[in-house]
Design goal:
Distance between the termini: 30 Å
Helix content: 25-40%
Mean pLDDT: 87
CATH architecture of the largest domain: 3-Layer(aba) Sandwich
Strand content: 25-35%
Strand order of the largest sheet: 1-2-3-4-5-7-6
Low-confidence stretches: 1-21
Number of domains: 2
CATH class of the largest domain: Alpha Beta
Order of helices and strands: HEHHEEEHEHEE
Number of strands: 7
CATH topology of the largest domain: Aminopeptidase
CATH superfamily of the largest domain: Gcn5-related N-acetyltransferase (GNAT)
Radius of gyration: 15 Å
Structural class: alpha+beta
Number of helices: 5
């Protein structure tokens, strides 16, 4: 995709991303988001990605990341790695003080919509078996558990649900 096409796609997407939640918009992750993203990642995960890992991700052609913003502040982010018509959601988090307000649902919907616009037919992810709030969010967006990855997580050691969108089963 050329830089002009990327700019036009982002402009069109930005126009579509207005929602009822006052002041909340989504946009493609950029360098200016990285400090907030790294802070949210650090507070959310026992083995967080570094700011350099996110910097590399936003410049990779196979990875795609969005952020949710309230004003100029990044409050959530999510992204996936694409493989042909499938995508694996690799990172997804909302600032801890703002969880439960629908921001995660808003951002996940936007991320999946953009993926479908880019030709993605199926999404997958892993989630801690104890993370009931995240599991409910993913189920709301059409994911379902298809198996368990034993000891997938460390610190603490825990199994993960392997989840796929319904399209996986068609």
């Amino acid at each position: 995709m050329s830089e002009t096409q990327k700019a036009e796609t982002q402009k069109a997407g930005t126009q579509k991303n207005e929602i009822a939640k006052a002041g909340l918009i989504w946009t493609e992750m950029s360098e200016e988001d990285l400090e907030d993203v790294a802070r949210i990642e650090q507070e959310s995960f026992s083995q967080p990605w570094s700011i350099d890992s996110f910097r590399d991700a936003i410049h990779s052609p196979d990875l795609y990341y969005l952020t949710a913003r309230e004003g100029s502040r990044t409050v959530a982010y999510g992204g996936y790695v694409r493989s042909f018509e499938e995508a694996c959601i690799t990172n997804f988090a909302v600032e801890s003080a703002l969880r439960g307000r629908g921001i995660g649902s808003f951002l996940l919907g936007a991320l999946m919509q953009r993926g479908r616009e880019q030709g993605i037919e199926r999404f997958t992810l892993e989630v801690r078996v104890s993370n009931e709030a995240a599991i409910r969010l993913y189920e709301k967006h059409g994911f379902r558990s298809v198996g368990i990855r034993k000891n997938f997580y460390s610190f603490p050691k825990e199994d993960a649900h392997i989840m796929w969108t319904e399209e996986h089963f068609l």
